[in-house]
Amino acid sequence: MLIHIAVPLFQVATLLLVGALLGRSLIAAIVAVIAMVIALVLQGRGHRREAEAPTPFDGAADFVSRFVGEQWVTFPRFVRSGAWHANLQRARRPR
Description:
By secondary structure, the chain is mainly α. The chain contains 4 helices and no strands. Helix 1 (about 5-25) packs antiparallel against helix 2 (about 25-50).
């Protein structure tokens, strides 16, 4: 269930980090980075459970570009399509 909040957590943390940098708040920046790491770990655990493994990263630049693209482009499309809500409802059903 926690996997369903990983991307929104990352998005909020990204916005918090930008605000912290603009406002020169070290504590807010640290909190934002910690939240981003938590989101990254949650997503990594979620991807390990998928039937089809994602393509391995070619390096740091590939990781950053694909990860940020997934958070800020792919996920919003997923939400707008209604698939995120459907997956969330399915996860809430008792097994």
